[in-house]
Design goal:
heterodimer, A: 238 residues, Rossmann fold, 4-stranded antiparallel β-sheet, 10 helices, 36% helix, B: mainly alpha, two-stranded antiparallel ribbon, globular, binds adenosine-5'-triphosphate, binds magnesium ion
């Protein structure tokens, strides 16, 4: 039996009069990589922000490991094992690489565990180790994305939510980012991935949801949707 | 020699500005608001010292009591007046802060009357003479306290977990929330630190000139705010540099007879010049757009 880690039901979110999400439902099972794809402005970022408490829904529910996240303050969610790497990386430019990683471990009480995770992250991203004393604002875009992901790993998450991790990166780095997302799962983590790069996202995902102007218009196994004619046309540029 | 004395006096009064400016700049950086009432916390601290002196007599106890009282007051003001406005327009927050400022000044006047109080026990008189130089003890004390506060605060921000969280919140509040940082708690701590610093500044002012009225904090508050902007508002080293620079300019201007009557104008011209050359202030960061 698979275990549902995150279940979103009939979620509605508005920015003033703009209805950004018009009642979407989806779920993520433990150990899966699930992608949420859709065009610009479809509501992907809005969805993730609502899941991790930065936005509040006008209707609907978000249940993570049995907890109602709509009633949980944003800063408490990461210690429940759910971490969000936001769009645009949002690392702390005025802190060193090492201090940024420590911020990732902000809710971690166990120092030994933090050191252990730090070693793992430095193994995964050797570049960050070389540059650990450097101000994060001076890193290249690719390195900043590595830092954002490393920072998230330091919170010892069960589930990682990634918002367009490949944005603005060169093709080589894009592939590298997707490889890293795969290693998340190999290390037992569950992933909810938002991507513009639908093809690559689908190639590493188990299941996919397609979002269009605030509604989910299609969902299914990634291996099946990748061959779906309408999806090919709209999102894969074929 | 005269110039050296002027410089030392300038660094000393600049130190007081810097200590006040730190409160403005930290609150601005972290809570993203201009706490117009910050200068009045100095005044409240002064009265707290006055009252404690009446009751217990010892200046050290008075300063500690004032620091604690101001800290609590700062936290309460943030919770009651500013927190409900989180996310409101900056103008609404600014007007609220001005209201808090008037409230504190009026309350002080109602409670203590309008004639100045003279907490003489706070005064530190006397001076050291080194060769031809004469430097007041109060000036030396101010310099020492300034250095201690600057070092302690820099170490705290750089090496403590809470200090790093303050940097994080000032840079990106939502990203800080996503890392599990309780941003409300960090804002509370910021107000607490700023208010304690205001109390300390109040003491440094009163130990030089023990005359206390409900507008004690007004002009120093405005000067310190100017210093914070000169240094780059939001930047802690900026507040330090801005405060010291303003104090030195002030004392040099006072020491030149032709300029002395226009000292305030000279100080505010520094602000205008700095902003013309570098709109973000001496150490201020230009806001970088996200990719
Ligand atoms: N702060 C805001 N205020 C008002 N409207 C907003 C705000 N943020 C997003 N929107 C609107 O909500 C809709 C969904 O935006 P969202 O950022 O969730 O899209 P997205 O799918 O992440 O797009 P992209 O791929 O460009 O990142 C858009 O129409 C957008 O204009
Ligand atoms: Mg988006």
């Amino acid at each position: 039996m698979s275990e549902t880690l995150l279940e979103v039901k009939d979620l509605e979110v508005s920015y003033g009069v703009i209805r950004a999400l018009k009642g979407i439902s989806f779920k993520v099972e433990r150990g899966e990589i699930v992608s949420l794809i859709g065009a610009n402005g479809a509501g992907k970022t809005t969805t993730l922000h609502t899941v991790t408490g930065l936005l509040h829904p006008s209707a609907g529910s978000i249940v993570y490991k049995g907890h109602d996240l709509t009633r949980t303050p944003a800063h408490k969610i990461v210690s429940m094992g759910l971490v969000h790497v936001p769009e645009g990386r949002r690392i702390f430019q005025n802190l060193s690489v090492y201090d940024n990683l420590l911020m990732g471990a902000y809710s971690q009480k166990n120092k030994a565990k933090v050191n252990e995770d730090m070693t793992l992250v430095f193994d995964l991203f050797p570049r960050l180790k070389e540059r650990r004393k450097q101000m994060a604002g001076t890193l290249s875009g690719g390195e900043q994305q590595m830092l954002a992901m490393g920072k998230a790993l330091l919170s010892d998450p069960e589930m990682v939510v990634l918002d367009e991790p490949s944005m603005g990166l060169s093709p080589l780095l894009v592939s590298e980012v997707f490889e890293i997302v795969k290693t998340f799962r190999e290390n037992g983590k569950t992933v909810l991935l938002v991507e513009q790069n639908a093809k690559k996202a689908m190639s590493i995902s188990d299941r996919v949801y397609v979002l269009e102007t605030g509604s989910i218009i299609n969902e299914g196994k990634a291996s099946e949707l990748i061959n779906d004619e309408s999806i090919k046309k709209a999102y894969l540029g074929e | 020699m005269d110039f050296l004395v002027t410089l030392i006096n300038g660094l000393s009064s600049g130190g007081t500005y810097a200590i006040i400016a730190l409160g403005y700049t930290m609150v601005y950086g972290i809570a993203k608001m201009l706490n117009f009432a910050h200068g009045d916390i100095i005044m409240v601290g002064g009265y707290a010292m006055y009252v404690t002196l009446m009751a217990m007599g010892h200046p050290v106890i008075a300063v500690c009591a004032a620091a604690v009282f101001c800290m609590i007051l700062g936290i309460v003001i943030e919770k009651v007046a500013y927190k409900p406005l989180r996310g409101a327009s900056p103008l609404a927050v600014l007007i609220t802060a001005i209201g808090v400022s008037f409230l504190l000044q009026s309350l002080a006047q109602i409670i203590f009357g309008s004639s100045p109080k003279m907490p003489l026990k706070l005064q530190i008189s006397g001076a050291v003479t080194i060769g031809a130089m004469r430097i007041d003890y109060s000036t030396i004390l101010t310099l020492a306290v300034t250095v201690i506060i600057m070092v302690a605060l820099s170490v705290f921000v750089k090496y403590s977990k809470t200090g790093r969280a303050m940097v994080a919140v000032s840079e990106d509040r939502d990203a800080a929330l996503l890392m599990g940082i309780n941003t409300n708690r960090i804002i509370t701590i910021t107000f607490a630190i700023g208010s304690v610093l205001a109390a300390v500044a109040g003491y440094l002012m009163l130990c030089k000139a023990p005359s206390l009225s409900n507008t004690l904090g007004s002009m120093p508050g405005i000067k310190a705010f100017t210093a914070a902007v000169i240094g780059g508002i939001g930047s802690i080293p900026g507040a330090m540099v801005g405060g010291l620079l303003l104090g030195v300019v002030e004392c040099i201007s006072y020491s030149i007879p032709a300029l002395a009557p226009f000292t305030d104008a000279v100080e505010f011209s520094i602000l205008i010049i700095v902003l013309l050359v570098k709109p973000s202030g001496i150490l201020g960061k230009m806001r970088r757009e996200k990719v």
